[in-house]
Design brief:
By secondary structure, the protein is mainly β. The chain is built from 3 helices and 16 strands. Helix content is 14%, strand content 42%.
Length: 307
């Protein structure tokens, strides 16, 4: 499944997707008003061409990492930029890693992905439950990565992944056939099971509602929790510091909450599992008497409750 969305506010839009081969091209389909499209990407595809009325056309490289069986399902969410947007000249090249997980026996498997060639900070961790699960990561730096899989009993397997600029597809199969004495490397999802850990706080830059990279990692884990527990509702509340006009702060808080909700939806969370609220500078997390305290108030809080 692919979702086309407005890069500015993460809302879905009708977009056209074309596969470009070595000497030809083929229209794969057009998304509906919500931005959703189900399509088959041929193995020989070199690029995807994204087009929509009023938006900048973009061509994204397609890379297959390792063997991928015919019919393997993946999820993707691809951004479209308005032609008159200031972001037209500043948007970064797209690097996406789209997984298809086949976990046959284990109830939950943790994955730790570490870079071998780029910054030591270029790593990702997440947990996937039993079954077939498409999953994707944005803003993955190109390079060589080692990915270890573990469950609560210990190490399961390791795979090397080569990430190239563009969209990278990787199919992962995990079972219990391989064990070793390695320490468990399970990457547990964000936990909301205890009263002291029932709320997660996401921080933003001043006057911004753009998601930081570390915030996206947290949201990736939260989306896994919501996927595994459909009875949960994520209540998302946006806040700001007290600098500037209250009405503008209320609007900024609204945008922060809605961007978080839309990101969760991009990760496959059902709309009925999210609710957005905004308080602006009200109900601050602390006094706005220093730059450090103001930074703590530029936030979104997420609380999971049983519906």
């Amino acid at each position: 499944m692919l979702r086309c969305y407005n890069h500015h506010n993460a809302t879905g839009l009708p977009g056209k997707v074309t596969a470009i081969f070595k000497t030809s091209q083929q229209l794969l389909g057009q998304s509906n008003e919500s931005g959703i499209i189900l399509l088959h990407i041929p193995d020989s595809t070199r690029y995807l061409l994204l087009e929509a009325d009023g938006y900048v056309s973009s061509k994204i490289a397609v890379n297959l990492s390792g063997k991928i069986e015919k019919g393997t399902e993946f999820n993707l969410a691809l951004p479209f930029v308005l032609k008159d947007s200031a972001m037209t000249t500043t948007i970064k090249p797209m690097n996406i890693l789209s997984f298809s997980f086949d976990i046959t026996e284990n109830e939950s498997v943790g994955f730790l992905m570490r870079s071998k060639t780029v910054s030591s900070k270029s790593g990702h961790s997440f947990s996937i439950s039993k079954g077939l699960h498409p999953f994707f990561l944005n803003d993955v730096l190109p390079g060589v990565y080692d990915m270890d899989a573990s469950d609560k009993e210990g190490f399961l397997k390791s795979e090397r992944i080569i990430i190239k600029p563009g969209i990278n597809f990787k199919a992962i199969h995990v079972d219990k056939r391989k064990r070793s004495a390695k320490d468990s490397l399970i990457a547990l999802p964000v936990s909301f099971n205890s009263p002291t850990n029932s709320r997660k706080i996401l921080y933003f830059n001043q006057s911004s509602y753009e998601l930081r990279p570390e915030v996206k990692l947290t949201l990736d884990s939260i989306s896994t929790v919501l996927y595994k527990k459909p009875e949960l509702l994520a209540v998302v509340t946006g806040f700001t510091d007290n600098v500037g006009r209250r009405d503008l702060n209320m609007t900024l808080a609204e945008y922060r909450a809605k961007v978080v909700v839309n990101y969760l939806k991009l990760k496959g969370v059902k709309p009925k599992q999210t609710a957005a609220k905004w308080k602006g500078p009200d109900l601050s997390g602390g006094p706005n008497d220093s730059n450090e305290n103001k930074e703590r108030n530029r936030r979104v809080e997420i609380e999971l409750i049983v519906q």
